[in-house]
């Protein structure tokens, strides 16, 4: 695989970074994951806007313009002949000197890493026909979940808890209500209404969330942005998650209780179809 490191396209085995990089020592960095369908980037503009915001919240300079980011993404997709898959982008603060809690000066060059993942048939994932089973676990993450940092240890633990329980994912619960999934936003459906937690620093501002809510309104569905409990989700007609890599994925079981019929519902199926259709049209 050819990867990108600080301006160079290299074989993955030749891409090396300093052990003093603050991404490595302190999880001091941010990332984005962009899906590729038919060789094109999905919602690229949304990823650029969020990347810029994450960097600015951490007082890091954006090392590239959106046009430069696009050129790097396209080059990597071409070099690795990706038809369906993902581009992972990471910017860490770098570090010119020794380990220190204080940030180095703002003109320090960040470390920029991008690589591709090949996922043939990404949009035809058969799991979308079956749906996810999830368990709930306490949300004990830090308070700035709106910044897309590489600090992913607790989400990893949540995935492991799900794996050990024989299910697909975990939903985080805080103060009696769901925040989000380990790597996705969480929703329930009641009648014609889509319910999902409002944006705040408690959750990542999913770019798939923004697109799906827009398409839901256009399709005459109602959208209510408020928190819900696990009990309310278990009693809902349908449930689902969204993310840039899973798109719209039904959730059919929560903590052992079936949601609705226990099969993916028609509202979620419709949202997935609209999302994929519209985003393919707008891909770059
Ligand atoms: N919440 C969390 C915690 C995530 O890690 C992700 C995936 N990046 C999402 C939500 C979904 O965001 P997006 O739709 O932008 O992929």
Q: Would you kindly provide a written description of the structure presented here, covering whatever features stand out?
A:
- The radius of gyration is 19 Å and the shape is globular.
- A hairpin with a 2-residue loop joins β8 (169-174) and β9.
- The mean pLDDT is 97.
- α6 (207-218) packs across α8 (266-281).
- It contains eight helices and 15 strands.
- By secondary structure, the protein is α+β, with helices and mostly antiparallel strands.
- It starts with a strand and ends with a helix.
- It has helices at 22-26, 44-57, 66-79, 127-130, 153-164, 207-218, 230-234, 266-281; strands spanning 2-5, 8-11, 29-37, 40-41, 85-92, 111-118, 132-138, 169-174, 177-181, 185-190, 193-196, 222-225, 238-243, 247-254, 257-258.
- It has two domains: 2-122, Aminotransferase class 4, branched-chain amino acid transferase, N-terminal domain (D-amino Acid Aminotransferase, Chain A, domain 1, 2-Layer Sandwich), CATH 3.30.470; 127-281, D-amino Acid Aminotransferase, Chain A, domain 2 (Alpha-Beta Barrel), CATH 3.20.10.10.
- Helices cover 29% and strands 29% of the residues.
- The strands form two sheets. Strands 7, 8, 9, 10, 11, 12, 13, 14 and 15 form a nine-stranded mixed beta sheet that branches.
- The structure holds 4'-deoxy-4'-aminopyridoxal-5'-phosphate (PMP).
- Residues 180, 183-185, 204, 206-209, 242-244 line the site of 4'-deoxy-4'-aminopyridoxal-5'-phosphate.
